[in-house]
Amino acid sequence: MATAPGLQPRTWDGMPAWAKDGKVLCFFQGAGKFKTRYATFGISDRAQLDEGGLWPTAFAIHRFGDAEATMVRRAAG
């Protein structure tokens, strides 16, 4: 919340997510719940971070630091 105070916390598929104007912009997906190797932090298409011909929309996450906070601030616009 300190990174992007304009976003509202909510849940999405039972996992933490953050929304702007009621629309999810970024979300967490736990590895255990989704039976995957990695927990992931994702950015929805509503964030409009389109740059170039290819851009990532989900990241395997081990920790949340400055670079990740910058991405959330960009998504929050």
General description of the model:
The protein has 2 helices and 5 strands; from the N terminus they run E-E-E-H-E-E-H. The protein has 77 residues and is an alpha+beta fold. Strands 1-2-3-4-5 form a 5-stranded antiparallel sheet. A hairpin with a 2-residue loop joins strand 2 (15-20) and strand 3 (23-29). The model has no long low-confidence stretch (mean pLDDT 85).
Question: Which key phrases capture this entry?
Answer:
alpha+beta, 77 residues
What is the SS-derived class? alpha+beta
List segments where confidence is low: pLDDT < 50 over at least 5 consecutive residues.
none
Tell me the strand order in the biggest sheet. 1-2-3-4-5
| Main sheet summary | 5 strands, antiparallel
Count of individual beta strands: 5
Helix content: 10-25%
Outline of the structure:
The chain is of the alpha+beta class. 19% of the residues lie in helices and 32% in strands. It has a five-stranded antiparallel beta sheet with strand order 1-2-3-4-5.
